[in-house]
Amino acid sequence: MALNFENDEQKKCYETLRKEIESIVKEVEYDELYGQKLTPDDQFYKEGVVDRLVFKFCKANQFQLEGSRAQLKKTLKWRKEFRPLHAAFKETPASSILDEVCAVTNSDKNDANKKVITWNLYGLLVKHKEVFKDLDGFMRFRIGLMERGLQLLDFESDDNHLMTQIHDYSNVSMWRLDADIKKCSRAVIETFQQYYPETLYAKFFVNVPYVMSWLYEVIKMFVSEDTRKKFVVMSDGHQLKDHLAVVPKEFGGEEPLKSLSIANVEPNAYVKYLLDKDSE
Ligand code: HEM
To answer: Which CDD domains match (predicted)?
Structure first.
């Protein structure tokens, strides 16, 4: 696994924060990030995984120690309260339609960091806009999907420590973007930005009708420049083939998304342990 530093200052930021992990965990009284244990034990802890996660927080903060430390602490505190693992593995979706329009796939044949993909076929929600009325329910589902994706990554690898996300917007030209949708998307965008730094490799927006491209210009203002650079907007779903070796039938491939997707992502041993402890 390679952690690439451009200079000694970056390395120093990383090494300082890495050494502080145990005291941070003690301070916030929470020892879990993306389903991984942060402090040593002889059962669940993987040193290389924690190295990678700490690096992500430093990178997202341009290797400024204060900002990296603050974001990490905030993230752990948020996880303690929001319980994203519970959302991912213990809760049923607020609306069953959400399960039908969202999926996670894992295709080894795709290039580096495009193996694990979360799919949001938001265009299919045209007749189910009520799901956006329940902000909390929508958030818990969307964050749950994110966490299931994270479980499939390998933080010790160089080619599978980031995920790709796809939004399909077919049918949306008939939509009015109402206040509920705006509220839900803003909330998810902010949560990802604050609490999931350096987890995304690329985000593809497909079947975006030409008449809706103005919306892209609006939404992208809420997103940091670093994240924006990862976005690719396509008017046709078949253009996905230019980016992925394996695409579902709906986008010109062989197998339908439903058969490619993983219905039940298996949580790792530490996550199982935490969830069991939680329900005692
Ligand atoms: C983000 C829903 C239309 C571009 C989001 C998010 C939601 C959402 C829930 C939060 C992030 C996520 O779930 O991953 C919708 C709905 C639409 C719509 C229901 C129906 C009208 C569009 C259109 C575009 C667009 C037409 C144009 C390309 C974006 C962008 C983000 C986003 C750039 C930010 C992604 C991120 O920061 O992760 N949308 N959207 N959306 N959407 Fe849409």
So the answer is: SEC14
Q: In angstroms, rounded to a whole number, what is the distance separating the alpha carbons of residues 276 and 280?
A: 7
Note the pLDDT tens digit of each residue in 138-186: 999 999 999 999 999 999 999 999 999 999 999 888 777 889 999 999 9
Q: Give the residue whose CA is nearest to atom 27 of ligand 1.
A: 216
The H or E element spanning position 104 is: strand 102-106
**How many angstroms separate the CA atoms of 204 and 187, rounded?**
19
User: Ligand 1 pocket test: which of 98, 121, 122 has the largest number of ligand atoms within 8 Å of its C-beta?
Assistant: 122
Residue spans per domain, the chain: 8-82, 97-259
Options 3.40.525.10, 1.10.10.10, 3.60.70.12, 1.10.1040.10; which CATH number does 97-259 get? 3.40.525.10
What would the mean pLDDT of 31-48 be, rounded to a whole number? Answer: 98
Specify whether the CB–CB gap between 191 and 136 falls below 8 A.
no
Nearest ligand 1 atom, CA 223: 37
Pocket of ligand 1 contains residue 171 by CB under 6 Å:
no
| CA 238 to centroid of ligand 1, rounded, Å | 19
- If you measure from the C-alpha of residue 48 to the centroid of ligand 1, how many angstroms do you get, rounded to a whole number? 34
Ligand 1 atom with least separation from CA of 200: 38
Rounded to two decimals, the pTM is: 0.96
Check residue 278 and give its pLDDT: 83
- Whether 17 lines ligand 1, by a CB cut-off of 6 Å, is no
**Ligand 1: nearest atom to the Cα of 233:** 28
Identify the three-state secondary structure at position 135.
helix
Phi/psi for 148 (5° steps) reads -65, -40
- Euclidean distance between CA atoms 77 and 221, whole angstroms: 27
